[in-house]
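User: quick one, fold this
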Amino acid sequence: MSIVGGAPKVIGQEQNQSATITSPAGINAAVIMELLKGEIGVPHLYDSEIKFLAECTPNGTVTPDMDQAIFSALTYMQVGPVLSIRAAQNAYFGGSYVPRSGSSNVTTGFNTGYTNLSDIPWPNGTLDAETSLILTGKNQGAWNNNIGYLLYPYHAADTLTLTDFNYSTATITTHVDTVDASAILTQGPFYQTGEAVKLILQDSSDILPTGLLPNTTYYVISGSANQIQLATSLVNALNNTPIAFTAGAASLGGGRGFTLLPSPALCKTPGCFTLMVYNRSTTTSNPVLVETWTLSLMNMKDGGGNNVYIADILNSETTQSTYILAIQNVGVQTDNVMDAYPRAVTGVYSNGVVTPFYFASGSDGSDLTDDSMADYLSPLYNQDQYSLKFVLDGGHASPIFQAAILDLCDPTQGGRGDCFGVFSVPYLYEASSDYLNQVVNYRMVATAFDSSYGAMYSPHVLIYDKYNDRTLYVSPDGFAASIIALSGYMPPFGLNRGKLIVNGLRRVYSPAERDALFDVNINPLRFIPGKGTYVWGDKTLAAVPSALDGINVRIALTDIEPAIKAAMESFLGEIVNDPSTQALVRSRCNSYLKQVSSLKGMKEWYVQCDSSNNSNQDAENHIMNLAVWLKPYLSIRYIVTTFIITNQSVQLNQQSIV
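Assistant:
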């Protein structure tokens, strides 16, 4: 709008100077773990122990054979969310092939495992006309082999007459597969061996063939086309032992009416089938029903308006299951759409017991090397996707892995600059008879790091493992990171903020030993009789003494530096690098740093963004210079206490002391 011309007027304009700078949100900690379950290599955020254990362990609990990094994650989860990354090498999907209803093939498990879903072949080639579904575990691992399932198609009630009973062969003719392809929505595929049915009399005067009783559960033995036989038990059906019924009194009344009713009617939705998922305990092998799904091979909804299309519900991208994935054979070609549906899977008969059909060939893979552990840190470099404050070593105390964590954190090494590594010392060194030299040498020789973006702690701590009713020593990293997170910008050690709730220490270091560790930038844990166990040091791994060797200083800077950098992005694209813009930059920075100072994050500061550091040449080169001078708060590490003994004649007051 032009201000010149026209009658005199007041022109109203608006300029927003209310934008503020805020510290990065969240105190998420990342832990790389050799988990037995979970998506490999992809960070997942957990703030619930129950959800973490459900998705990352085979049976929702911790067992003695699992990676003890789990305890680092669970410890930190008490104060903040954990970004869990499952590390695994050559882990395999286990699974099963489900034939289509009209196929003569049988249900089979994988005969070998597969690293990727895309590697899983159709058993009869690319144009497989016999297989309806591939079912696999949700992710790779030997836990897949404990997943079983039963599958029941929808069946409509079928009206029969005595003419449908063949007494010489003890077979019954069903009508389900005699309709056209569209009948999938009203009838369902024909019966498969093991499915349960009942024969219901339509009139009280009706009489069944001798050997068959009304309202009694029988089990199908499927024959050719739509011919079935009945067995008195599932075991007999699977062993092909049918009932040999006879005409008996039924021959007196031809044309009688009977209803063949699916029993139990597990799938009540036309055009669908029911998939029941079981998980057997690794200790008892008893299968437990964990999920039940109503599914369709067609893009449809059930009577309640719920989507039942299998491609949406159990696909690899958005599966709603905790246990399984399904791959539909969309290319199967048959003359009857009912034939493309999966055949019933009614269990496996073994040693007199009928159990679900279990997946096969899942594998946990091989042991990870230090290099391969470090590779799983790669996704965390994406700061836009993953908010992060700490990276824990999870007790994987190796120079290669810890160096990779420092590289991730330290911007001078191409890292993020907004997070902090928390490290342990190898347990074997702490357990050695020469423990002090071993621990010191690990820090000074094996890990001669020089970075303020990490800290190291020793020794391991003794905890009670509630999952296995035992005590064990675990890495201190989860406890140390929790203390840092709860301390804010204050020094994270000492009696006021450093207390650990643990049952003991692997080594109770003497004062001289604590001195030796602290001098090489290892923060010792200290047991004080009658008081408890405490973190007794606050050094980073910076080799040169400076303000940056204090953890509280580096933690403050991991907030301040990213926050101001992010705020400055709002000035990119502006066309004026002049005093008014520079004043706005200074105002926002000063306002933010005042908030940080109120939390003891910084003692003093000075923001420089004016003509003293922005020349005309800078403006011509599209550059704005901002310098933030910071004076941090430093922790008290040493207190010199002097006791002066005086004569009786000395008056003890301020004047005499001065």
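User: anything notable?
Assistant: The CA atoms of residues 18 and 588 lie 9 Å apart.
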